[in-house]
Amino acid sequence: MGGLQSGGGTSAVAASAHAGCERFRLTDPFITRRTRKALAARVGHPDTGAGIPEARWTRAMTFESLVHSELFVSALLTQAVGRLGLARPDAVRRRDCHGDLADTADELARAHREAESSGAATMLTALAVPYLDLESVPDATPVQPDFAIVCPREEDGRTGGSWLIMGDAKDYERVRARIDDGRMLKGFLQVALGAESAAAWSGLPTGMRVHRHGALAVPRNAFLQPEVVVELLDDHRTEVRARADERLKAKAELGAGFPAETELVPYVARLTANFDPRGCVTCNLFSYCRSELRNSDDPRAILAEIGIDRLRRPAVAGLVTGESTDGPAPRSIVDQVRSTVTGLPSWTGRLRIDPCGLPGTVDLVLVKSDASALGVHGVAVRKVGADGPAAWVRRVFPDPQSPFTRRAVMRILGAAVRELREAGVGPVHLVVPDRSTADLLATAADSLAGVELSRLRWHHDLDSGRPALTFDGEPATLPEPLHDDERLAVSFLLEEDRARAMSLRTPIVDVRAVLATHVTPGGPAADAGRLDYLLTWAEATDPLDHREVSDVIAQQPETPGARLSNVVSDAIDKARREEDPAAYEALVGAALDYRVQVLERAQRVLGGVGASRLREVHRVLEADAQEVWGRRVALQASDLVRFSRMYSHWRNAHVDLLDADRKCFDQLTCLVDTSVARDRAADAGIRELALATVIGLDPVRLDVQSRRLGDGAEVVALHVGDRAVVEQPATTFKIQRGSFKLGRLPIGALRRLDGLEGLLWDPEVVPDLAVGDTLVLADATWFTRFKSGHELAVKRPSPDDRSAPKVTCTPEAYAEDPEEHQWCCRPHTVAEAEWADTLAERRSRGELNPEVWPPLVDEERFDVRAPEEVPLLVVPMPVPDDLTIDDLD
Questions:
Q1: Mind listing the pLDDT tens digit for each residue in 176-192?
Q2: Are the CB atoms for 26 and 271 separated by under 8 Å?
Q3: Distance CA 343, CA 326 (A)
Q4: pLDDT at 14
Q5: Which one in 92, 520, 545, 647 has a CA-CA gap of 20 to 30 Å to 861?
Q6: How far apart are CA 623 and CA 409, in angstroms?
Q7: What's the rounded Cα separation, in Å, for the pair 430 and 361?
């Protein structure tokens, strides 16, 4: 590996997810002069899993090429300059620096002169800038920002130099219309590295200053069309400067020639690893660090291996050493460690409240393409009616990136939902194997809803004799309207997006999360994020070796969720590139078959778990909510409104509704789940619950571990030992219009008597107790009480019916009285027509792009370009051997 590796992709230690690990920092190629992948092979644990799928790399390179493309340069440049409040440039230029230091210096000087002399702004691409404090080291590789903008800098109303705005391009996926904050932070840290390096470079022209803000180009929609986000870099630059100084200091302390080839193995072994099985899996040294823990003589090393937090380890160390423990730990962590040691799963004893397998559910699995944020290779759907599950409907899509593929997925799903609604079974639940599947579907629905709303506006423009224009004033091409089944699926998925704000709503059911509430496997908790890993433990009758299970699952070519393994992703991508449809269909078909098999296994395991008496409560609550959604669909009023675009007053009006929803959810969960109730009762911040131990039976005396629930407090026992009181045959249960009423419960006041240990408890209904039993007590005032002394009720929250059609609304209601019905059942066609008229008026006054300055931000992000302008993927390039997914993210 030639040269001092200080910049480019290998300099990202300052912006890396692993920068808190000493072993990661001090094995930087800047110090070892070797890539971490080469280093891993040298120390005997070659990395086979931290690479980048070829399709994912192609997508990243495609997006970078679009950022550099003449098609988007003007828009990106003006967005960045305008959002920083700078003057509108008189002209726009683009220059390529070819990744060369000398070319970068020359282009910076030319751009600076153009800014001063003619007021032009220049976007420079493929820059090379000396890494911080290494300008004098001739063989040090440079920092390589994707782009930078040079524009005039005004002082006292005249140009007094130029600004250098550093930038970077990241093809981050928008999940449910937004990009994760953690990813944006990493992106801006890399921008800050370029800004700090440029500010320290002597090659910067006199009069050019590095701006305090930076620009990050990210995809604005599923078509990879870029947009710019700007952010103040002061804190980011301070952090990258500290990291850079740390690297330089470490290099100086070790010496220029250290470590030599013979010193590598002991050098790496001496470094302290901050191992986390969830976060470290993308590091090239993951296998080495994990093997170190697996081979350790210290039995407590297994706690670090399976990812137990450092502060929690003393509380569970006794489970692996045989010694006493130090303090309490959550039940889930205790069960994880116990399962790891015994090799058998830990069942929570909770009964089912999920709808999986019931009539009204739709099972769905899909295979996501790494080449596109919303690309789908194939999908399989099965509806469950009153007669049981139907046959699986499978589709393989030859063009996974096409918008028509997304619409085809929606049509298949919509048809299943429609047939269930027509059959009168419900409420409807979509059952998926992981959260990524749900996120992809909801994100695709969000995109299609935005396109459909744009189509409605453009259609009205044409009907009004106006040209159809995008937000930025470009000619628009009208897409085809959504089919009825497509619109139904899109609306259902948008309803799920809104429902995520509610704890009790479950339009989409993640079967992995459901199974995880019933069983805790051994091994790393991160591995339990895979449904097939969780199932291996749930189906186990003989002890398992958690390490063997982890290794076997990790080496499998197929995965149970939406995303593909690197091996299969590369194979599918190769079959598409080589135009081999038979191989492509076989590979996608095999991926679908595996996902179907895993989902069916999960439902069989869940079928062996008993149903809770409160299962019907959750079905009733979902049915209430879907009744409101059904009115939205029937009247096509607010059925395509995306949750991310709701008005602030709508959100504010939901505070009380959300509080009621959360309280009901907490009460129902504590009634049915002993583990959750115990953990919450042990939490000093939870005032409504407490743990108690039975210390006497005649009379009943309790040692209550609470300062609040004491003498005079009226309490109800929710759990006796591992038994949920609500599930006992003697407990009565009734679903009422405004509440869920429970009777024959052990409710009574706590009293303190002089001379007696503990508190007396004299409930109206006495449960079966034994000395030493652990009880979970709840403050009876947390519920609705009755005079009977043995009954409580959980208040039934109202459904979210704000800004939704009322029961009395009809298809003609809005037309007959628009003022009365403008906030309930106004159809989308009317709403979008009115908004189109407003936009046309503003455009005629010069208040919209491209006339207005600074440019307005299109928060919708769903304008559609003409088909010939939709960018195609670049020619596939080999994935650099030394990069991991962290370098892209």
A1: 878 888 889 889 999 99
A2: yes
A3: 23
A4: 45
A5: 92
A6: 25
A7: 6
